[in-house]
Specification:
Strand content: 15-25%
Number of strands: 4
Helix content: 40-55%
Radius of gyration: 27 Å
Distance between the termini: 32 Å
Strand order of the largest sheet: 1-2
Structural class: alpha+beta
Number of helices: 3
Shape: flat
Largest sheet: 2 strands, antiparallel
Length: 150
């Protein structure tokens, strides 16, 4: 008999340990049962990460919606801020840059190199971008595939 622990995460990122006793698997050694439990843990963690990512996306959208709503309220009442109880709500202006896509960045960089008088701007840009990247090396990863049942 083996004791296997699964970590179940809730939305508060705390966890509960649940002890599950596994009855001796037929034709399985102890190490295979431990490997199987590790695979199950890995699958649970992957599932939880996907769920948390989706939850974060929803929360970011809700945050943006609420901020927009509060800004509209303050602009409608021609206030730069209000105080309610012990909470002060202010609006402020910040400079933000728009994000450029990869091709737009490369086009802009080529233009800067040409304006600077670099004769071979294309190959110089390739070398420059390559030098900014780290060294490439192989890393072992785990891929879990389930058999299709007929």
């Amino acid at each position: 008999m083996f004791d296997i622990y699964f970590l179940l995460f809730n939305t508060l990122s705390s966890y509960k340990e649940i002890k599950i006793q596994v009855i001796n698997y037929q034709n399985m050694s102890g190490s295979l049962a431990i490997i199987k439990s590790d695979i199950i843990k890995l699958q649970n963690i992957q599932t939880e990460l996907k769920r948390l990512s989706a939850e974060m996306k929803k929360l970011r959208k809700e945050k943006e919606r609420l901020e927009s709503k509060l800004i509209q309220f303050l602009e409608k009442n021609e206030n730069s801020g209000i105080t309610i109880d012990d909470t002060t709500l202010l609006t402020e202006s910040k400079k933000r840059r728009e994000r450029k896509g990869r091709t737009d960045k490369e086009i802009a960089a080529l233009e800067v190199l040409r304006m600077a008088g670099v004769s071979n701007a294309d190959s110089t840009l390739e070398k420059l971008l390559s030098s900014m990247k780290g060294n490439e090396h192989l890393v072992k990863t785990v891929k879990i595939q389930r058999k299709k049942r007929n």
